[in-house]
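Problem: given the chain below (448 residues), write out its structure.
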Amino acid sequence: MNKRETPPLLKEFVDFINQEKVEVRAFKNKFLHGKAYIIDGIPVLGGAGIVGSSNLTHAGLTANYELNAVLKQESAVKELIRWFDGFWNEAEDYKHELLDILTAFTSEYTPYEVYIKILYEYFRDRFELEISPKEETPSPIILTDFQHDGYQNAKDILLKYGGVILADSVGLGKTYLALKLLDDYAYKLRQKALLICPAQLKEVLWEPELRRASIRADIESTESVSRDSFSGRIENYADYVLIVRDNDNFFAGSGIRSLKGYFQKAEADKENLYDVLEEIAVRRSRYFIKRNYPDAEIDGKAVQFPERELHTIRYSLEKSYKGLYKEIASTIENLYLAPYNPEAYRKGMVSPEFEGLKDRLLKEGWSEKDAHNYMMKLGRGTALVQIMKTLYLKRLESSVEALKISLVRQKDFQKKFLELLEKNKLLDTSHIGKSLYGMEWTTRRTRM
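Solution.
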């Protein structure tokens, strides 16, 4: 019997069982291993019985080697019927249960029902987590309904794969999901945890939040673990059970030559990329939360998402500062900011101009590769200087105090840079940004 024959034959069998004259019972008292077939209405004989090893299966009735005895004597058939009736009277009705099992294979389902079944099976583990009772141990990390579901999902992924990406949209509370996981591992289970975050977030965000929740975790800055020297210390972190990395804006390591090319390669097969992210990431949009959690609460209070109302406010800094803005802008524009572009101050090339520079380098004996690399470094440094000038103007637009903070920080940086320069040390360009956030100074000796 092939697969095409099975559905109609199964339906025919269901129709047969459904007949009022057909009864089905199950003997549940003990394991009944004996097999007997009783046949009535045989011409001349009237009835017959078969006792033996054959099961009522396709193989048992056709292919297997079986041993059966055929009983034709009336007394023997009656004794077999008496034996059968004894078990039949002790058995329970099983007709409805059998029909339920069989009709499950013959029922037809709409595409929508099939789709819902697929979704249920795919997310079965997460559904089981969602309907589990709330944790009995109180936690200082109070979550909204949707944050709690995100936390449960993240915890499930973490246990399954050993890692999880928290990628909810801005403002949905990724920090609190991470704190809840830290609360589980570092506080409740007393296991070692490491938090890696940008230096500027350490004092203003993570240290206060960890203190408030009484969570003990070691903190490393993103800048420190990005250094080449960190690879030599990596074995010191092998015994951490949980590592949380916040704000991975610069995720590329030394083994990735081009982050753009790396992602282009990954996006070449977007379908598989989506499947991977679906498995390892918690990523929900604000629209999704508002649509699926319209009655979201936190600590018994309704969660409200403010609606943005944009108002255009036009102002003139020149009028506000009465000529001072123009003077400050001019001063900023005239800044050299030499530490951001040290290549421009190489011996014999003070204030080099881009036009014709490569030809001049080649005439001086530079190789094509060295000239190209120098031009690239010079271009990046020049661009960085212009970016810094623009940032200072933006800080001024924000407030005078904001500009003051940035300038004080820049002054300290310039002072430290000069101290190192006087010791014949040049701060590596890749560490300039890191040093502005109070990082330890990593230097390299450079021929000036």
